Amino acid sequence: MFSNTEQYTSASKAFFESQLAALSALTSIAMHGTEKLVALNMAVAKASAADTAAATKDLLAAKDPQAFFSLATAYTTPNTEKVAAYGRQLTDIVSATKAEFSKVADAQVAEVQSKVSALVDDIAKSAPAGSENVMAMLKSSITNAHAGYEQMNSAAKQAVEATGAHVAAASDQLTQVVKKAAAK
């Protein structure tokens, strides 16, 4: 079907190079997101160790049970706020990483679709007479595949947004519950 082997080879090479560049970009984004996550966890671990040591020291110095429980309650509220803040920071990191992934993936899909369409058009120009139906079917298949990708991508974005909203709501509810419990 290909009258020009060079055309196919050139398209294959360009496609491979494009995929390699996209993989490199996605790997870089993943590593950057992982670095942010590790930095967040290290900061939380350091702060938690220091806070735990200070709280333990104060609790052990309490003179009576009432003072002990008063101090324990006083330490609970800031910890709840720290957990909620951690949840928000974690959500921000995941959201930013996901947005960068989507940006690269969308650009890659658009580029591949453009190159495949151009290749099919070039093939159609040099196709033998009578192959118009086959070429139309090939173009239709490419269009349908892209539409399927768009639909799947849209559903995935909605799922991620819904999950983020649920995590944020759960974090807020947890903060409110602990604050109410600490107030009692």
Rg (CA only)? 28 Å
Strand content: under 5%
Mean pLDDT: 80
By helix and strand content, what is the structural category?
A: mainly alpha
Shape by Cα distribution: elongated
What is the ordering of alpha helices and beta strands? HHH
Alpha plus pi helix count: 3
Oligomer: single chain
Helix content: over 70%
Label this structure with key terms.
3 helices, mainly alpha
SSE diagram, text form:
Layout: H1 5-60, H2 65-126, H3 132-183
Helix pairs in contact: 1-2, 2-3
Could you walk me through the main structural features you see in this protein, from its secondary elements to its overall organization?
This protein has 184 residues and is mostly helical. It has helices spanning 5-60, 65-126, 132-183. α1 runs antiparallel to α2 (65-126) and α2 (65-126) runs antiparallel to α3 (132-183).
Question: Gist?
Answer:
The longest helix has 62 residues, at 65-126. This protein has helices spanning 5-60, 65-126, 132-183.
